[in-house]
Structure formats: C-alpha cells, structure tokens
Amino acid sequence: MEFGKLAGYWERIEAAASRLEMTSLLGGLLRERETDAAVVSKVIYLCQGQIAPGFKGYDIGLGEKLVEEALAMTSGYAREEVGKRFQKLGDLGLVAQEIAEKKRQQSLFREKLSVEKVYDNFLRIAKASGHGSQEQKLKLLAELLNSASPLEAKFVTRIPLGAMRLGIGDPTLMDALAVVYSKEFLAKEKRAAEKIEAELKEKKEEKRGEEFERRVRQLLRERIEEKYNIHSDLGDIARLLKEKGLKGLDAVELTPGVPIRPTLAERLPSAGEIVEKLGECMVEGKFDGFRLQVHKREDEVSIFSRRSENVTPMFPEVIEGVKTHLKARTAIIEGEALAVNEETGEFFPFQVTIQRKRKHGIERASEELPLKLFAFDVMMVDGKNLMPLPFRERRKTLERIVERGGVLDVTPMIVTKEPEAVDAFFTRCIEQGLEGIVAKDLDAKYIAGARKFAWIKLKRSYKGELQDSVDLAVIGYFKGKGIRTRFGLGALLAAAYNGERDCFESIAKIGTGLSEAQLAEWEERLKKIKANRKPARVESGLEPDVWTEPVHVIEVRADEITRSPVHACGREAGKPGYALRFPRLVSFRTDKKAEEATSTKEIRDMFARQKAQKTQESGKGDDSA
C-alpha cells in the first residue's frame, strides 16, 4: 500500500469536524483493496500513533532535537534554522511539510514510499539500542524523509514524536471495523436482525432504515469490543477479520502474555447502600498502589499496568515472588502492588510507591522500596478461562494457587451482608493506611473493560460533599493573567469521558493546585499536542486559548458538582451540563489513558447522590426544628 494514500486519509481525518465523519473515513480506509490482511495491522497501529500494541513495549519515541537534526540533514538547512521554523509553526510536522514542498519545487526527490517501508523503518528505530543507536535512528528517519512527499513528510515526522493530532481513539477504530463488516454480520445474524426490525416496527420509529443500520452496527461493535477486552490488540483483530471475515472473531481467545482490559468499580457513598445493592458480598481492602496484571507461562512472567503497558522490567521482586509462590503452570492474576516499610510492616502512601515506576536504577530501588503484591482476582489457570465463573469460585481458586507470605499475598477480606460489619472493616482498613474498601458481588463474572456494580468502592475521601476525587482528561489550556503569563499557562480545561459517544465533555477550568514549576512543565507538555481547532472528539461551551488532544489525565477534587450552561458534560436538550465548583488539581494520573477518565455517567450519578444527600440533610434540619 502506498504511504501517500494513507497520509491522504489522515489529512482528511485531521480536518474532520465530527467523530461520525472520522468513523466514515476510517471505514473507507479499511475497505480499500490495498488494505489487505498483510498490511491492515500496520495501518491500524500507525493510526494509533504506534507500531505495536502497548503491551509489546516498543517505543518509537524520538526527541524533538533528533527529529530537527534529521530534517536539517535531509533539507540542507542549518539545525538552527529548522529550530526557528519549529518555534514559528509549533509543529515539526508542518516544518517537514514546508521543507519537502521546497524540495519538490527543486525536483530533489523521490522514490515512492510504501506503508510497509515506513512501518519497518520505525520498527527498526524502536529496536535500536546500544552503541551507535542514535546514529542508526537518525539514518532510518532521514531515509524516509528523503523519499517523502510534503504530505507524507508531515506524518513521517509526527509519528516518532507521538503527536499524530488525529484524535483517533480505540472506540472509533472499533466503530469503523463495525461499519466495514456490518453487511456480513447482517447476513450471518438474521435472527438478531429480525428482532431489531420487529422492535423498530412496534415503536413506529421514524427513519427506520437508518436506525436499523445503526442498531446492527452497534451490535457488531459490541462483539468486537468483547474480543478487544480480552485481547487488547486491534491490529491483530483487524487482521483476523480481513483473513476470515467475522469467523476471525471466534479465533480471539484469552492468551497469557496478552493483557485483559481491567474491570472497573462503581462507587457508592455508604456501607448501607452497598449492602442494599449487593446483598451478601465480599469486602476487601482497597490499596493505593500499582494495579498490576500478572501473566505466568512456565518460568516466564509478564507484568502489565492498568493501561496494558508492559512494565515487567520495573518489578524484579514481583517476578521472583510469582515464580516462587504462584502454584500454577500458567496463570493470569490481578493485584495491587505497594511499597512496604520492612521495619514496621506499614504501607507507604502512593506518592512513595510511585517512585518505583522507573526505567533506570531498578535494582537499587527494589532494595530501598520493596513491593508487596496483594492478589485480588484470577482470570486463567493452566489454560482454563475462569472469567465466566462466579467471583466466589475465582476467589477460592486464587487462595489455592497463591502461597502466601513474602512478596505475594491475597487481599484481606470478609464476607458479610451486614452494613455494620462493612463499616467496621472499612475503619480497620483506614487505620492500616489503606485507601478504603471494595465490595464485590459473589456471583458476578469478571467483566473485562467495563464499569459495573459487580465491584463497588468506598473510599475515605467520601466524607466531603463531592464524594470522591475525579480523573479528568485535559483538553486545552488558558494562557493566564498577571504573573502567570510568564509561564505560558494559567489554567487547564478538563473533561469527563462519554463512553457511549466516545467524546470528551468539558466539566472544569482548573487553576488551583498547580505550582509555578508545574505551570511551566504543563505548558511544555501540552504545546506538543496542541490542536489548531477543537478536536472532533471534544465538546465544550468554553473555548480555551489553546486546544489540545485529549491525552493527559489529572486527579481533581472539588466542593461539589453543579449545573452549568457553559460546560458540555451531561448536557441534554433543554438541560444544562455539569461543572465542578472550586476544582483543584491533586495529582497527575500517568497510569491512565484519557479514555479511562471519570465517565459522564459517573458524574451524573455523583450529582444525583449529592442532591439526595442535601435533601436528606435538609429534612433532618426540619425535624430538629
């Protein structure tokens, strides 16, 4: 496949005004005859701005200085001149496009680039290491730039910088796959199609044909996502679909070494409401550390973060603990790892534990801040998929295969249907320095990639009016006034994530909680992903000075949730959206992707509980009067 064709699609996607238009363009790309089984996975990865799924650990990342050097090498410009153009345009991709345009006018190139050539060069860049690797990376990038047309040069430059500026999320790619294979699905699933048709006829739905097509695509999209949740490699799934059609989905199975997307917990504000929702349940301590998914295959151990990143090299003591104390030939377990004070047995706070996330000095760090892994679930043992089993059975299996003590243990827990027992256990966990508790439905299966009331968390921070902190995606920033103008950033515009619509909806403008150093750091970080206009997957009634792609996540606290005519979060016809009152930044969530931000549904639920609490408190006041 010619890379120019792919770059042409990317140019149109970048200019798309809506997510629906992006999906349609991606569907057209995936239907192209040249996007065959041999190349489709490479196309998917490059659309994601990478060369492989995150769990494979490949990093093409090149620094701006090295990319500037490659542009200077291939253009004849001095490095300083390239830097000046970058300062002016704010996007090295545009600098490369401008330089390539002048080269074309001078007839200085070119042989045509293929997708395969671009992909292979970046794969070699990612694998290059050791003495002379910088020179090798420079040579491989320069080779592509020498052959690139202006439009190709723009994207060849952006890929290694991790700044594609396309706004393509995994849900949009899954929607595009559903568009491509919807006709085959319709022919195969006649019974499901007849059921949808009958429902629409009964409801006398207007535009029945359009709604029918949408419902069919949505049903297929759910099937694709089910497979993605247990096999987080969209490139591989797209390849199987190209090779075998919808039968390819049947070949996607749970595989040690390929991470499962983690199940997520809902939240409730009291033990009474938890018991009312679940009845008898298991309650375990909620640890504030690294959520890790551990895969064991014989003597090989792989460790993945909640973002499905391969973090195996960072935790050597966990690897040894699993090899020694996990009694299974193959297994996939999940747990929370925390730094432990070996003298007192106490757990360090997350601010200390996070210091273990590093690429250098790992052995020394593991000696100074040893981790303890508390397992809380198991998804596979010796080739058997345990995810469909009730949690009570999975827990018994977990306790059987974990030899407790040392680095590896299981979470402390109780089984109860009494709110008083839940409260007592909650208090005990807080006294031990834990974050709170998680209550689990004893009969629930493991629901990968979803947030359901199978798990419910209760944290100590639920004592304020806003029952918990929220995690928000940064979608833009304001340059600030007064003294803050010298940092280039005065406040962040942040958004919740609407998973149903795959978009980010503004909810807060945050200027409190940022130190002067952080203001400068965030301006430097965000300018690399700034957008020339509002990204297609972003909705906001408030316009920042600079829009950015939704990439970074921050933890935010606030006094309460209020209604707002300005913000888009939860906005419906005739009803304003939601906003945070007096928001303040708590921390940066480097362990989360933007799509893992607090959802619009969660915000809506928190607002309803907050309203109910105020009504209850008002009623108490009336009674006392």
TrEMBL record:
Residue spans crossing the bilayer: none
Q: Which GO terms describe its molecular function?
A: ATP binding; DNA binding; DNA ligase (ATP) activity; metal ion binding
Region of interest: Disordered: 591-625
Checking Gene3D superfamilies in the record gives: DNA ligase, ATP-dependent, N-terminal domain (1.10.3260.10), DNA ligase/mRNA capping enzyme (3.30.470.30), Nucleic acid-binding proteins (2.40.50.140)
Which Pfam family would be a valid example here?
DNA_ligase_A_C
Q: Where is the composition biased (Basic and acidic residues)?
A: 591-608
Could you say which cofactors this protein requires? Mg(2+)
Q: Which residues form the active site?
A: K286
Domain (ATP-dependent DNA ligase family profile): give its ranges: 364-497
Q: What class of enzyme is it?
A: ligase
Arranged from A to Z, the UniProt key words for this protein are:
ATP-binding, Cell cycle, Cell division, Coiled coil, DNA damage, DNA recombination, DNA repair, DNA replication, Ligase, Magnesium, Metal-binding, Nucleotide-binding
Quote the EC number.
Answer: 6.5.1.1
Q: Which residues form a coiled coil?
A: 183-222
Q: Which NCBIfam families match?
A: dnl1
| Role summary | DNA ligase that seals nicks in double-stranded DNA during DNA replication, DNA recombination and DNA repair.
Q: This chain belongs to which protein, by name?
A: DNA ligase
Q: Which organism is it from?
A: Candidatus Iainarchaeum sp
Instruction: Report which gene this protein is encoded by.
Output: lig
